[in-house]
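Quick board copy: two proteins, each given as sequence then tokens.
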Amino acid sequence: MQKNYIDDNAPLLEVRNLSCGYLNRNNYREVANGINLRLYRGEINGIIGEIGSGKTTLVRAIEGKIFRSSGDIFFRGESIFIKKNYFKFRKKRVVVKQDSMNALRPRYSVEFQIRKLFKGGKYNENELKRAFDLLNLDLEILNKLPVQLSDGTRHRVLIAMASLVKPEILIVDEPTAGLDIMAIRGMLKLFRELTQTTSIIMISSDIIPIFQVCDRVYVMREGQIIEDGKWSELLDKPHHPYVKDLLESMPSVRNRKKEFVENYNEIRTECVYSDKCRYIDERCRERIPYRFDGEHGYRCIKYPEWTDDSA
């Protein structure tokens, strides 16, 4: 019998030219457009963007829960939009959403729900203690009901539960929401340890944790990925003015006067930063293709020209 070998050099998950949105009866509202993303084994990829940029919509598309108008998503080289492949994919991925209350059953203890993950059997107590310790959780929480816990605590419990399961793909949406700085630090360390068995997609509007732990970073604005690359490349040499402004907006004393950038969450043909960019000219009003500088992707027609203007 022929065996199915896994190619470690191929993407574990690939989003290819995906456009998706929300279909209500006969009305379709497209939120994400032309998305391309690759996740390899053992990687942590980050997706950053403002609230309303389409990050959570992309997560729902990867889950296979919303309408796609074009493009595809591949798991181990097979489209998840084929029914038999989708069920295989569902068993190999875990999504930890920001709304933790709906993910936990309110009338059952945390420990009961952890045992349910293993069909009532025993879980690895040492791994649980390690996860709880890193996430700054007390073991007494195991005996409590979810309704007795804060939002931030429930969110950390879900991350700990996901770490016990060891899925091939873990998707975490806004994992730092409601967490203090020590819990965030421990969570990032846990994510890095999980890469021995798990590939992770981390979606956040919090820039600093993304650049602390992710191997590759994708930047979204108004439903488009406008730049992606290794975390160090984006920090050292951003190719899009929006990414430069985003990085300069990271908290520091010298950035206190930085203005907030609004996001209108509309699919547009021109550059999605054209209403704010100080380097704009008429070419930016046209459809902007996605270009590559080695493995560094970006959507700016004026790069590297704009970097000379900013000098």
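And the next:
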Amino acid sequence: MAALAAMAMLAGTTGCRQRSGEETAPAETFMQQPGWNGGTGTTVGGKTADSQQAERRGATVGGIIADSQQAERRGTTTGGKTADGQQAERRGTGRSETGGGDAADLLRQRVGRGISETMLRRTGYVTSYNKRTRCPNWVAWTLTKEHTYGRELRDEERFEEDLDVPEPRATYQDYYNSRLDRGHMCPAGDNKWSAQAMTESFLMTNICPQNHGLNKEDWNDLEMQCRTWARRYGELTIVCGPLFEEENPRQIGRNKVTVPSAFFKVVYREKPQPAAIGFIFGNHGRRQPWREQTVSIDEVERRTGIDFFWQLPDDVEDRVEAQDDGDDWR
């Protein structure tokens, strides 16, 4: 896996709640350059400063897993299974032996050492939040066939700042006059199965500054395609998030929310045989049909420094993460 790029320190203030609005921005182009990916770059005794601070804050608040190390302690095995695994079995969501691991386990990804990370477990997704960028590192969720037929609507939902993360944090107002959308990582359309899940999908820790054209066109097309795949294959594990590859990335609003240069999405399925596919989209408004943006998960790992689906048996992980032609997904 590739090493993560160096960290830029960010600062800002906070805002208040507002009703969401539709953004109508012209296309913008962001040059992609290697070198910046939001890490803290500071470790003490093998733990990041963020992790130590999270441990001092205590255990869970409103579904928080305070940090990855604390989560690992809570997920220690009992009778050979993690607490998440036992809970998943009780819910009847355990995975088959073909791929290995269970649904709850596969939602957990590994970020590079020194990257700011606060884990937040919501009804419909899990997110790794980066307090430096004010964006998620990644957001992961399980999309089942049943979830694609939900009846909850987004019409009355509002974008909300997430009070479970410390200030400064992203707010609705930070996006004013930015000509950028408040782009969902875990889409509202994948959360129609639960009113609570729908509401939580509008938390700003699930949102990134996204070009309007990308948000409404090609990114949306891929979201709809994932629902088609979920209906075809029964269940998917999806992870997506931002890439910060510019040396001096743009920041917006009083809270200095960092604008990604690109976005990634990786998708894994077990049936009829384990398979995976990756995508990378530039954060601009030029057309990027999803069929032309396919890459291997190995390539996404190289560019993000995130270790995806590490819970799978090594032979399965190596095989599916090397796939890049999309033949199994047409």
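Board note added afterward: The longest helix spans residues 218-233.
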